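Practice problem: predict the structure.
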Amino acid sequence: MQLVTLVTAAIAGVSAVLAAPLMGGVTGCDVSTLSIAPYLKSANASLTPLDPPAPTDKLLTIVLGIGSQNYSCSAGVPVPNGAYAPLYDVSCLIKNDPSVAQYLTGLMVHVPPNVQTGAMALVQNFINAQITAGLHYFKGDFATPAFELTVASEKKQEKFYGAVFQKLAAPSGADTGKAPLNYGAVPYLKLMPKAGMGSTLSTIYRVDTAGGMQPTTCDWTGQKQIPYSALYYIYKSK
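Answer:
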C-alpha cells in the first residue's frame, strides 16, 4: 500500500506541474533568461560560493536526474563509484513555476528505484509528451561524470565528459533521502569539461539535491546504490 501511495503521489504531483504549461509546451522551453545565481551561495556565510557561469555560457536546458550514487567499501570506508541517473527535461516546468524545484527532487527520491522508470513512463503517457532527455553516468575510472542527452530546443544530441570543479554543501533543509538510506543530500556541484574528450557542453551545475550521501562507515561487499535526485542546469558556449 505504501508503494502504491508513493508512486501515485509522484505521478500525480509531477503530472500536474508538467501539464500546467501545456499551452506553452512541455519540453524544450527557452530557459536562457533564468539565473543560477540563487544556488551559488549558501546561507552559511563560511562556505565558499560556487563560481557563476562564464559570460559566454548560455543556459541550454534544465534536466531532472533520478537514480543512484554508488559506493564500494574499502577498509570500512565508503568509496565513491560514480552515479547512474536517467535525465528528464523539466525546462518548461521550471520556467513556468520555479517554486516546483523546491519539492520535485524530494518527491522523486522517495519513489522506489525499481519503479522510478515506470513511474516516469506513466507521467509521459499521462501528459502525452516525451520528457526523457538522456543519461548521466560515469566513465570506467569513476572520476569522469558523463552526460549524454538530446536537447529538445535544439533537437540534437549534446555530450559532456568532465570533472568536479567546485562543491557546495546542500542546504540544511535538503531532503536526506529514502529511509533507511537517508544519510543526507549530496553537495551542489559545478562541473567543467575535461580537455580532449569531445564535450559539446561548457558547464553543468548540480543543484536541488535530495539523498545520495554515503554513510560514514560501511561493511558491504560489492557496490551499494544510494537513491538520489537532483536538478542539472546545463550550459553551452554561445
